[in-house]
Write a structure and sequence with these properties.
Blueprint lengths: L3 H35 L5 H12 L4 H25 L8 H33 L8 H9 L2 H28 L6 H31 L43
Length: 252
């Protein structure tokens, strides 16, 4: 029979590793991933430039495997073990609902991440899809209603799981002890989650329909504040070398 103290220590250590892998490597990657994909709102060229910068990193595959793929699977494995050995909390009604949703969205988020990795990262590693094709492939795939639905549910699950996970991390590590501090953190996480969801769905909707949820205005260097219809740099129109076009005589 296992020593209860040893079991508790293992459970405590598993929770700490689970918490760290969720917030730092997985959460950090999620923020960087969304930041990079935000450039898709500026068009194919801007998106490919950002993705291309990542592809130029030395030892990229090692970084992806050790800093992204491995932590995701460690976090998921520990998460499933914790779910099956769940020690339910004594929080109020709302927090217990969030406790349950955290586990449901964790399963959905993991399934979605695996699906997304298979569609793009795995295809790139297998030589089936070059990274230069990601933009067009995303546009074609997300224009399909069922794919859009999968991504909408998946993105929502990932964002909720991450935002609510920040609250769990802060409470679990003793960063917010009082009820008042935890209430303030709940509001902050809700605002962050809502903003992050809008940003993420803006990208998905842009790929799906060609029109983002929130329009993005592009200002090219040196043209800020100028009328897009007017030529920049003070250059005169080509025709007439700057002379005004002739007008019809008045009164005729």
């Amino acid at each position: 029979m296992a020593n209860p103290d040893t079991t508790d220590r293992r459970y405590f250590l598993a929770r700490r590793i689970f918490s760290i892998t969720g917030l730092l490597p997985v959460g950090g990657f999620l923020l960087i991933h969304i930041y990079t994909n935000t450039y898709s709102l500026f068009g194919r060229e801007a998106f490919n430039e950002k993705v291309g910068d990542i592809q130029k990193l030395p030892y990229l595959l090692v970084i992806e495997l050790c800093a992204i793929i491995l932590p995701i699977f460690v976090h998921a494995l520990l998460g499933f073990l914790i779910v099956f050995q769940a020690r339910y909390n004594t929080y109020g009604y709302t927090r217990n609902w969030l406790f349950t949703l955290q586990r449901v969205t964790g399963v959905l988020a993991f399934a979605f991440i695996c699906f997304h990795l298979y569609e793009y990262w795995a295809q790139k590693q297998l030589g089936v899809m070059p990274w230069e094709s990601f933009y067009d492939e995303l546009g074609q795939n997300l224009s399909k209603p069922w794919k859009f639905a999968v991504y909408a549910v998946g993105v929502t699950s990932v964002v909720f799981h991450f935002a609510n996970g920040i609250w769990s991390f802060a409470v679990g590590w003793g960063l917010t002890i009082t009820r008042a501090a935890q209430r303030r953190l709940t509001i902050a996480c809700a605002i962050f989650g809502a903003a992050f969801w809008v940003l993420s769905m803006n990208i998905v909707l842009s790929f799906s329909t060609g029109e983002p949820l929130v329009p993005v205005r592009i200002e090219l260097p040196g043209t800020a504040g100028e009328d897009p219809a007017e030529p920049s740099g003070g250059e005169a129109p080509a025709e007439g070398e700057g002379e005004a076009a002739p007008t019809a005589p008045s009164g005729t």
